[in-house]
Amino acid sequence: MSKQLSQEEKTQLVQAVHSAVNHYDKSKRKTITQACKDVGLARSTYNRWRDSVQENINETGVAVVPPPKSRAPKRNGMSLPAELQKRIADMARSGLYANPSQIGKALREEGVSVSDNTVRNKLESAGLYGYRTVVGSDGTPIKKKVILR
């Protein structure tokens, strides 16, 4: 099925499959797979819809139509909470840490699950980590990635 169905239509299809599987005349009963094929529904889709319909049956046995649930993630998996981003920036500005891995290690010791690469990426996006030219021991300039203060 290529079009989006409303919750009522999904409930009707689930009930149609259910009634075909549990027909009162044993000779007319069908398997779930056969009944799904008759209504043009994949078995896995039927199982998912059946579970959502069963969750929403009220005391009288009538299916209540819930609002559709989004299956999309609630936030980007790469995003950090704003307070943690601010904390990383404050730690970089403090001058106590020489590189992102030290900040990551300090946060992990406090129980915050964050990788060194994530800390580095957040510092780069905040403009606190990048290249700076330093003078090497032989007097030649060297471009080095450092925490910018």
How do the strands and helices of this protein lay out in sequence?
Elements: H1 7-21, H2 32-39, H3 43-55, H4 82-94, H5 100-109, H6 116-125, E1 129-135, E2 141-147
Helix pairs in contact: 1-2, 1-3, 5-6
Mean pLDDT: 84
How many domains, as an integer? 2
Helix content: 40-55%
Rg is: 29 Å
Structural class: mainly alpha
- Find the count of extended strands (DSSP E, 2+ residues): 2
Low-confidence stretches are none
Largest sheet: 2 strands, antiparallel
Largest sheet: spatial strand order: 1-2
The tally of helices reads 6
The share of residues in extended strands comes to 5-15%
Q: Based on Cα principal axes, name the global outline.
A: rod-shaped
Sequence of secondary-structure elements: HHHHHHEE
Protein name: Transposase
How would you portray this structure in words?
Helix content is 46%, strand content 9%. The two termini are 57 Å apart. With 149 residues, it is mainly α. The chain has a two-stranded antiparallel ribbon with strand order 1-2. It has 6 helices and 2 strands; from the N terminus they run ααααααββ. It has helices at 7-21, 32-39, 43-55, 82-94, 100-109, 116-125, and strands spanning 129-135, 141-147. The protein has 2 domains: 1-72, no CATH class; 82-147, Arc Repressor Mutant, subunit A (Orthogonal Bundle), CATH 1.10.10. The mean pLDDT is 84. It is rod-shaped. Helix 1 packs across helix 2 (32-39), helix 1 (7-21) crosses helix 3 (43-55) and helix 5 (100-109) packs across helix 6 (116-125). This is Transposase.
